[in-house]
Amino acid sequence: MRGVLRAAVLASTAAVALSGCAGGGGTSDVLSEGGWPGRYSDARNSSTATADGLDDLSAAWARPLGGRVGSPAGVARNGQIAVTASTDAGCNLFSFQIDNGRKRWCTRLAPGATTVTPVSDGNANIYVGEDGGMFSFNEHGQRRWRIPVSGTPRSAQFASDGKLVVVTHFGQVNIINPQTGQLVAPLFDLVPIPAVGDGQNVPRLASDHGLPACFGGSPDCPVATTPAVDLATDRIFVTLWRPGADRASLVAMRYTSGDNASVVEEWSTDDLPGGSVTSPVLSADGATVYVHDGDGTLWAVDSTTGTPRWSHRLDYSPATGPAVTGDGLLLLAAGGDEGALTALRDNGDGAEMVWQRTDVTQHAVPAVTSNGLGYSIVGGADGLAALVFDTSDGHSIDEEPITEATGFPVGTAVGPDGEFVTTTHDGDIVVLR
To answer: Looking at residue 155, what DSSP letter applies?
Structure first.
């Protein structure tokens, strides 16, 4: 990896004054309120939950959504599940109660909404994008606000001051007040917008242009992933395919809050061959960013400088980034039907194998609970099965068949009481408890 570094941030942005989400001192993660409120649970995309896991699962309920599902469900701290589906008619954004599967509300947004996970705050307000706009709804489905954007937003994040971080698939970065829906910083475009030198009457791309490319990674979808945010520094990490490049980049930006709020690019490591459709994942201490390239290599990059620390070659290309625990364990995701259940550890200059399960076929990215249990979907005797395993050594604790769902799993989440929540591409949502 060549690790080409782009424009350094201005010295005036080197120090960032952080404030808590409630206006007090300290740094707070809006997504740490319980449940699984973001696509990968928290600000660092770690796929780790605040709830304890369950060692004896049984089926609770399952529901068909009536269309394909392209992104995992989100679970608010009150147990309200939000999920999108690509339906031909009727609703494509749904909210369900986790205890009984009852539909609380649903609505229809533009088709681009079905490519992202709705994100919830501590009050169960939902934030979800569509072609050309970003919405917020309250827990009862009432619209709070909509703000126009260029492109289609990927799953949102929150900065340390509680502001909403929205990056569209065109690479437009929006910092939004989640209460009012108003911008609090000037727009920042990772992909330059047409200027005078580009000629007159340059056609504007439709906000859904290139969305299908987000599933495979290509220049038509410059930002295909969910950003990760380091709440100690307010660095925002995204993968980006720049115009004319033959590969993708890992980019770090810095959000500075206050009266002169701004977003600037700090560094870019421009060597992810084959692109990248996995979201960046931060280590618990924020020092390292992990990302897969499109050729099956896992990279560990210094989050401050963008310098690659090590790379680890796999025999497949995972569909998502790893789950990264607080003590530095990396649990790899599957790539379709490929990829054994594997745990690596970052030893500073490389990745060492901690354990591997070749006796099971993993179909998802593991979700890790606060008491050290892992949830994943594996191939069972009669189809899919929910697996609970010990993350310390990989041994199975429980395995429960999933008989009411078909298709490959899209994602795994953990409910506020340890519920196992999963969705499938065929359009089923399943809860075990």
So the answer is: S
